[in-house]
Write a structure and sequence with these properties.
Two copies of one chain form a homodimer.
Chain A (H helix, E strand, L loop, with lengths): L2 H4 L10 E5 H17 L3 E2 L3 H4 L2 H10 L4 E3 L2 H9 L4 E4 L6 H11 L3 E6 L2 H13 L4 E7 L11 H12 L4 E8 L10 H24 L6 E4 L5 H7 L4 E2 L9 H4 L16 E9 L6 E3 L14 E2 L5 E5 L5 E5 L11 E5 L3 H5 L4 E6 L2 E7 L8
Parallel strand pairs in A: 1-16, 2-9, 3-4, 4-5, 5-6, 6-7, 7-8, 8-9
Antiparallel strand pairs in A: 1-10, 10-11, 10-15, 11-14, 12-15, 13-14, 16-17
Chain lengths: ~375, ~375
């Protein structure tokens, strides 16, 4: 008799499934909100991580000023779910998307980032035709070399260009250094974030010296949050992953000298063993279609002796660091995803649980809303 | 004036979008069906690649004997879409899934692979209770060390175990060598496939010598297809990717001496440039959430001078091999995905086109059906 088979994890949930621990989720929402507030920072969590209107509403109820969305489709899903203030953190280009943006801006408070004069003119024409004043935020490249103007001079020129459009208003500046967020070593992460915030402050100063107000300075993520709290450059922070966490963020030093992370890990993938045909190896039902592989590798929760490897689109391989494997087909295990954003994007719903029991199913409305 | 902006690709399609060229799709379906038939092989295409009932119906109309599904959710979606014969190519374990399998087997012809005596007993009890005779297929490990019994002795023992169950019938044997399918060098791929088919033939012989019929020997993929056609081990082939293709399969030698692939590439991702803030770099709206990164890197179609790199969850970076980049925000390009199965799994629909115009939208019903 195998006790794990007789008392499986979540016996009424078919696998693979995306689990969300409600107690840990609420704790993470409360902790970051409290820490942001105590540092005088507005908290605008990023919906790209959870893509779920229910989670967004919990963040708003806790005190968030609004949500971020990386894609217009995410912003629309948040608006449909009752969120009334969204910052779109990627430029919105082309007539189809700008038409959608105008319709969204007629429903809720929308801000959108810009880094290009042609795009400013395109947005201004559309806002004018829609008879709205659109809030735009200048994106500054603070070292990631992705989107964003790359100097204070260009930031000030773009501010002039925005100011010249009657249908646009300059709502602030955004600077985000995504590639540093998961840097595990605190001192190294801090060095990079300080350099990024210096670059952002230079652009803010250039815009202000050109005579324009910069009411909001927005940016930052989960990894930079403990640093952004003390640097004082940002007025608004955009962490996303803090709410679900993953094995990459779980491995970073939260503060100096390897200080312990105040955040728990609510997100996991429930998996089943489907084959143990080869001694010492167990095959589970989680492969690339049920766990993303672009970041860290998923890790087995509560079973540090088990090592997970991807074994194809629909399969994962478990081996044991002790050499002996006690698993049989039907056994269930929980994996902590390697990268929360792209793993959440594979699922239609969260199975929300507390005390070992399923409490609710929350739809992931913005799943796949990549346009 | 930029002629690409004035005449963009698919101006009525918002990006990112998953495009499917209908002419190329029909050609691929016809070519493989004809080549399988001329070699006396039954063709059972794998739905894990396209996850779309419309494509499956086209494959059936062309002469396929049924479809494969890697997951029960895929098989259910195929049945809902009118497919009446499905082989589930992964073991189905545990009471929840086996209950679903029984309900499916009451609707359509279902075969399911097994590699474990405990699983055989579990299936037999459920089939008996459901008053059906379930067709099972012994999965043989032919070198991938994932699922499957690893010797003729164990295959014959499993055949005995199946034969002892009144509610089960042995429908055949499966052997699949997934890790060899994309091996680009034909001779090396052929060597591996020959070894795999030798292992499979040994298990088939062992089962037959034990006194049991093996009516179907199923396996193979797109890369092994030209080899399986001539080896004569399989009676039924399971290629999936041939129907959509991707940059990995597009790069393999189809036959000896680098022989040209008869298959075209119907699948592409339509992307838009969203930022050109840094000279020599263009940022597009395709990142890890709109193109899978577990296999080959996506490549730019019709623009071999452009090099794609992932730049985060929602961003991709284009640079030029010539050094000068002629792109502006709003420009559109088509990417050939690096891995079709996991890219299709990110989208809810195919935008089907012919002659440069959108012809239809086909839902990807089994998208995300990973359980």
């Amino acid at each position: 008799v195998n006790s794990r088979i007789e008392n499986p994890l979540f016996p009424d949930v078919d696998t693979p499934a995306l689990l969300l621990d409600e107690t840990r989720l609420h704790a993470n929402i409360a902790i970051l909100q409290q820490q942001a507030a105590s540092s005088g920072l507005a908290l605008r969590p990023h919906a790209k991580a959870h893509k779920c209107a229910h989670v967004a509403r919990l963040q708003m109820e806790a005190g968030a000023v609004g949500l971020c969305a990386a894609k217009l489709g995410e912003a629309e899903a948040m608006a449909d779910g009752g969120i009334t203030d969204v910052l779109v953190t990627t430029p919105i280009v082309g007539p189809l998307k700008i038409g959608r943006l105008m319709r969204l801006a007629q429903r809720i408070t929308v801000r959108v980032v810009v880094d290009d004069e042609r795009n400013v003119h395109e947005l201004a024409r559309a806002a004018s035709a829609a008879q709205i004043v659109l809030r735009v935020v200048i994106e500054v490249d603070v070292g990631q070399h992705r989107c964003g103007v790359d100097s204070g001079l260009r930031a000030a020129a773009l501010a002039h260009c925005i100011h010249a459009q009657a249908s646009l208003t300059l709502a602030g500046v955004q600077g985000y250094q995504g590639s540093l967020q998961c840097q595990a070593d605190y001192a190294e992460r801090r060095r990079g974030i300080v350099a990024a915030m210096d670059a952002l402050a230079q652009s803010v100063n250039a815009i202000r010296e050109a005579g324009f107000a910069v009411p909001v300075i927005t940016g930052g993520g989960t990894g930079s949050f403990p640093i952004d709290r003390v640097l004082g450059c940002l007025t608004e922070v955009q962490p996303g992953s803090y709410v679900t966490m993953d094995s990459a963020y779980n491995a970073i030093d939260w503060c100096e000298a390897g200080g312990r992370m105040p955040l728990r890990a609510p997100l996991s993938i429930l998996a089943s063993v489907v084959s143990c045909a080869t001694p010492g190896r167990a095959i589970i039902d989680v492969g690339w279609k049920a766990a993303s592989s672009d970041g860290h590798v998923p890790v087995c929760r509560d079973r540090p002796d088990l090592i997970f490897e991807f074994a194809g689109d629909e399969h994962g391989l478990l081996t044991s660091s002790t050499g002996s494997l006690d698993l049989v087909p039907g056994d269930r295990i929980e994996l902590m995803p390697g990268h929360c954003d792209t793993t959440v994007n594979l699922y239609d719903r969260f199975v929300v649980h507390a005390g070992g029991r399923v409490q609710a199913i929350w739809p992931i409305e913005a799943r796949g809303k990549s346009n």
